[in-house]
């Protein structure tokens, strides 16, 4: 879609046709920057999560903080949006569908993290969690911004309510917390790749060209 | 594989225990699962428990005996886990092992410009309770009887609370701290105070340090009285401290009294000095108590003339 736009503009510029309205120019600039910012924010969150997860898993205690720990995912843990999907399926989605999936997933993950924040023991952990939630909120808004600037509608309504009831004992809750952090990690890792790919579809070079053309 | 049933059930689930107590826990495999007692083993905080502590209580029930439990390794509880032979987790139970809290002590409070009250305290226990302990600061007017609970915690360190408004002057308050954890509650002694007796204020603003003509061993310090209390500071005390640039030893001038200027003498010529001033708003509204010193003002620098 966008590469066709570049071509038509090039033709218009070379044939001295009226330049495209300024609005289009700033929109393209906005989108490219939004995507870059969203990518940067994703990488920042990945980095923050490493420290947060380390601290939190130490708080849960062994075996949760052991490197090869892999507890069973019981049915109740399914309420956390799973990041493991068929990669070919994922790549085959439209940009709109992929962005919407990211938007929905992070909105729900944010809800669960906020619940965690209310219950956690140490002041240091609460402080880290609060900071992380604020950044994650920023990511949700940033993704929304990218979707808007690309002309995609935002996914409707508040995040879906949790499917299964909350954990019935403290140990199960620890396992839920473990999986929440793990899924968050995988989502962020994959989103970074998604935004990197999206960045390449909206090259900033388009903007430079248009500005130069206007200098005629 | 039945999605809704848990593979196994541990009893007791998430118990709270006193340090040194013993515990017998059982793991019962759900009837939907083809596991028997001999296929199970236990770990505590990731460490396998010895087979000698196990007892088979039934075809699919294995128990473990834990004696003389130490305080919990983490406040979220010790992780006691029942595993199947291949290492898979079947069920877990969080053990909360610790001590009940001790009375919080050393409650000290101060009011900034008579507008609020901040109190801090120390936990009673010399060592640890191993359990998460919640502290609640409560206060009431001595003669009215309704308890209030402080809401803003950790404003001046981990054991502190801030009461931002609705404080009465000229009337004593009773203040105390309640500590509670899973094993019990402890209440501190009650502290009684009048807000006017614990007033502090901002450091004096506009501190200026200047030379006294050509006098090479003197400096003149001037400041303003803190604006928030300027109408009340009839009896304020001030203190000055100063040091040479390359020393960390402060010299204190104590008898500054109520004035807003002071002359430092006996100084070294051609030397840079750092000067700070602080204020104690004692005697507000006739209060007889000592008052509380403000923070020091930011250091102001000046140099004496060379000889």
TrEMBL record, chain A:
A GO CC term assigned to this protein in UniProt: CNTFR-CLCF1 complex
GO biological process: one example: cell surface receptor signaling pathway via JAK-STAT
SUPFAM superfamilies reported for this sequence: 4-helical cytokines
Subcellular location: Secreted
A GO molecular-function descriptor: cytokine activity
Record has Secreted as a keyword: yes
Residue stretches spanning the membrane: none
Protein family per UniProt: Belongs to the IL-6 superfamily.
Subunit structure: Forms a heteromeric complex with cardiotrophin-like cytokine CRLF1/CLF-1; the CRLF1-CLCF1 complex is a ligand for the ciliary neurotrophic factor receptor/CNTFR. The CRLF1-CLCF1 heterodimer binds SORL1 (via N-terminal ectodomain); within this complex, the interaction is mediated predominantly by the CRLF1 moiety. The tripartite signaling complex formed by CRLF1, CLCF1 and CNTFR also binds SORL1.
Entry function: In complex with CRLF1, forms a heterodimeric neurotropic cytokine that plays a crucial role during neuronal development. Also stimulates B-cells. Binds to and activates the ILST/gp130 receptor.
Protein name in UniProt: Cardiotrophin-like cytokine factor 1
Gene: Clcf1
UniProtKB/TrEMBL annotation, chain B:
Originating species: Campylorhamphus procurvoides
Gene name in the database record: Crlf1
Family: Belongs to the type I cytokine receptor family. Type 3 subfamily.
InterPro entries the record matches: FN3_dom, FN3_sf, Growth/epo_recpt_lig-bind, Ig-like_dom, Ig-like_dom_sf, Ig-like_fold, IgC2-like_lig-bd
Gene3D superfamilies cross-referenced by the UniProt entry: Immunoglobulins
Protein's UniProt keywords contain Repeat: yes
Stored Pfam families: EpoR_lig-bind, fn3, Lep_receptor_Ig
GO cellular component entries: CRLF-CLCF1 complex; external side of plasma membrane
Protein name: Cytokine receptor-like factor 1
This protein's record includes keyword Repeat: yes
Compartments, as annotated in UniProt: Membrane; Secreted
An example Gene Ontology biological process: negative regulation of neuron apoptotic process
A GO term for molecular function: cytokine receptor activity
Record-annotated Ig-like domain positions: 7-82
């Amino acid at each position: 879609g966008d590469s066709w736009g570049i071509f038509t503009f090039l033709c218009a510029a070379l044939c001295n046709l009226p330049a495209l309205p300024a609005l289009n120019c700033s929109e393209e600039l906005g989108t490219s920057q939004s995507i870059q910012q969203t990518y940067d924010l994703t990488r920042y969150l990945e980095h923050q999560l490493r420290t947060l997860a380390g601290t939190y898993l130490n708080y849960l205690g062994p075996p949760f903080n052991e490197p090869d720990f892999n507890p069973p995912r019981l049915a109740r843990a399914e309420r956390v949006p799973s990041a493991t999907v068929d990669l070919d399926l994922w790549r085959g989605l439209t940009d709109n569908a992929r962005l919407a999936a990211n938007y929905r997933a992070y909105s729900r993950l944010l809800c669960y993290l906020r619940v965690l924040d209310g219950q956690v023991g140490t002041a240091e952990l609460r402080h880290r969690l609060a900071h992380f939630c604020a950044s994650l909120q920023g990511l949700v808004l940033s993704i929304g911004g990218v979707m808007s600037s690309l002309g995609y509608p935002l996914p409707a309504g508040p995040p879906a309510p949790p499917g299964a009831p909350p954990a019935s004992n403290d140990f199960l809750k620890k396992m839920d917390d473990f999986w929440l952090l793990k899924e968050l990690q995988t989502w962020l890792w994959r989103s970074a790749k998604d935004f990197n790919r999206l960045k390449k579809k909206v090259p900033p070079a388009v903007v430079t060209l248009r500005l130069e053309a206007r200098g005629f | 594989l039945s999605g809704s049933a848990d593979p196994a059930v541990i009893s007791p689930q998430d118990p709270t225990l006193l340090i040194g107590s013993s515990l017998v826990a059982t793991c019962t495999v759900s009837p939907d699962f083809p596991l028997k007692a001999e296929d199970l083993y236990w770990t505590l905080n990731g460490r396998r428990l010895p087979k000698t502590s196990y007892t088979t209580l039934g075809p699919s029930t294995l128990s473990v005996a834990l004696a003389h439990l130490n305080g919990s390794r983490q406040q979220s509880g010790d992780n006691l886990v029942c595993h199947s032979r291949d290492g898979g987790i079947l069920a877990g139970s969080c053990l909360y092992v610790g001590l009940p809290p001790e009375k919080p002590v050393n409650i000290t409070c101060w009011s900034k410009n008579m507008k609020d009250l901040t109190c801090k305290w120390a936990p009673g226990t010399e060592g640890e309770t191993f359990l998460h302990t919640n502290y609640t600061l409560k206060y009431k007017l001595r003669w009215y009887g309704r308890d209030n609970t402080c809401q803003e915690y950790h404003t001046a360190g981990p054991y502190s609370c801030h009461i931002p408004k609705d404080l009465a002057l000229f009337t004593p308050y009773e203040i105390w701290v309640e500590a509670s954890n899973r094993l019990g509650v402890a209440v501190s002694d009650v502290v009684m105070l009048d807000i006017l007796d614990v007033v502090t204020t901002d450091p004096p603003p506009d501190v200026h340090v200047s030379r006294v003509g050509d006098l090479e061993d003197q400096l003149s310090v001037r400041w303003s009285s803190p604006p928030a209390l300027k109408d009340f500071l009839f009896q304020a005390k001030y203190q000055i401290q100063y040091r040479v640039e390359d020393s960390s030893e402060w010299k204190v001038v104590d008898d500054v009294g109520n004035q807003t200027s002071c002359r430092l003498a006996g100084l070294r010529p051609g030397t840079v000095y750092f000067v700070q001033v602080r204020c104690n708003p004692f005697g507000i509204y006739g209060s007889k108590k000592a008052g509380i010193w403000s923070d020091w003002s930011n250091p102001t620098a000046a140099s004496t003339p060379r000889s």
